[in-house]
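Intended use. Records like the one below are meant for learning the mapping from a protein sequence to its folded structure. Do not use them to infer anything beyond what is encoded.
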Amino acid sequence: MNYDFARNVFDLECMKRSLSPRMMRKFLRTVDEKKPLDADVAESLARAIKKWAEGLGVTHFTHWFMPLTGLTAGKQNTFLEWQGNRKIISRFSGRDLVKGEPDASSFPHGGMRSTFEARGYTAWDPCSPVFVVQSEKNSVLFIPSVFFGYNGLVLDKKTPLLRSLRLINDVALELLSHFGQRAGWVKNMIGVEQEFFLVGEKDYRQRPDLKTTGRLIMGARPPRGQQMGDHYFGAIPAPVLRYLETVEEEAFRLGIPIKTRHNEVAPNQFEIAPLYEEANIAADHNQLLMDLLARIARDHGMVCLLHEKPFAFFNGSGKHVNWSLMDSRGRNLLTPGPSRRSRLAFLSVLSGFLCGLNRYHDLLQAVLASPGNELRLGGHEAPPAIISVYLGEELEGIIEDPGSFVAGQFSQAELVRFEEFVPPILHDLSDRNRTSPVAFTGNKFEFRMPGASASLAFPVAVIDLMVAAGLREVHERLAGVRQEKALVQVLSNVLAENSAIVFKGDNYSSEWHDAARQRGLYIPGLLPDTIGRLREEKNIVLFEKFAVLSRQEVEARANIKIEVYVKTVEMELRVARYLLRAFIIPAALKNQSMLLDAVRLFPRDILTAQPSLLDNQHAFIAKFTAKINRAMEWVSQLDEDNEKLKEGDDLARARFCSKVIRPHLADAAALVEKIEERVDRDFWRLPRVTDILFR
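Structure written out for the chain above:
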């Protein structure tokens, strides 16, 4: 493999070679201290970037941004400009680098502007390096950008992330300074575990449900699935390995530090994960990685499915987010330090984290609610929809006796030897709880709820916002308190007040649902109601208090999520009706005809001698016919649902989707599974799941 890492990225090393020391210092001030980018620095950078990019064959540039679709977008321009009115020249100015102007009229806005108001702006995020994406015929310079409307309202997912990163930097520095822990900056570090399925492109093209919705709406489960546990961490199939090698090579060139690849639990399910990065870069890289996974799969005769639940009877796909804080001195703020003051700082960060999640966990549930996650969360292979935090035995002991912890009386990981013939290994102080939505895993918190297709930017922005609110409250309560014993008491009080969010048991158990309700935790019901928690007054006030989003911008995001949900379920409904009419019922009728012909042509002399000989066949045909009739009834029912879906506002339609249509689709799919199991292969035109996942 070619480890030509970051070859296509204009990173800090490229800048050092291209900019004067003075310009480099000014740029680093912009990045580290979140200061405005000076015009002279922008001009110098633009000249250097153009020269570098043309060396890679670049002919176009684009401001690459994350609109509220959850995908990425950009308008590609050449470097050509008129000089006077007769001569064409190649030029890329500081203004071209910093600002773009795409048409904003067709992007989701959630009511933030009128339809006829089309002007929108992109602005380069200098904390994200520009990069080049190459294809066979051309190369394009990508400029990571934010996106906002003419009225100044935020139309993208990245701007809230940048604001929350600045916020958590400021709040964390305030808190650290209280304990004499000096630092120049605090950054949010993220490690992302991306899950996905692979299917053959030929099978994909023959499944209207996979093509349209990204998931199998109807289909029988195969006899063999994931029950043997033989796919997880097994040998990666050779075609998939070649595909992943290609993905890694392109990812390396784009500066994405891929660390891990392996088989996941379900058949044809896999995971790929990079090293930890700054949250802003990690969000960019995850979007790029999803694009690479989808694009390169086609080159290998496969299709990458990023849907959270492409197959109802197998594990779904998530995007686990490992979250931590690091300061300018290289210290992980979720790792206890060697001194009493540093351990107080650790305890204050832990207290703030739990405080923020306990107060605003329903906001995170609203942000992560999606059509795909509705099908994934709550199953026994995915985190439950109720948010809790698992700390492990070590942190639980610290919470119970924080004074002893500050004094240095706490357990340390030790080397253990499980067998005489293997070397000793470092043994963790507590086990992991795979049922927990948020788990402490050593020096980080792992958020397991995000869905595989989700954009990272806004969920991480909300996590940072919640934690920043908790850290600010801790800092305010510590104001004026200097004695160690008093400091420990304040932190102990904060931990006790927010203990409801901590749970170490089985999150799948019914007892936990009852306990969570008694603790006052939010219990998600219909998905539209969960999305509605974005509009809760306390959550809107949180966004406004810390200047991450305005009330109008928050409400717009809730509107867009509701609209996306309705449109998604509407597409699923249309596909289901089409499958029943065009594929399933015709195949069943052909099979029924074949069975009836077989009975009709049975020799009469044998039947006369043994009148009951065909009783079982008659019963089988009668039961099969009843299933066909029920399928026809489901067509009528789904047609009726389609008409009712046209009534009411978006919220009423969304509730109808969640409460009626999706359960109806599940019931119809259960019936189709029984029909498919009884239909001759020659009549069944749709690729079966056995073919799709085990071909």
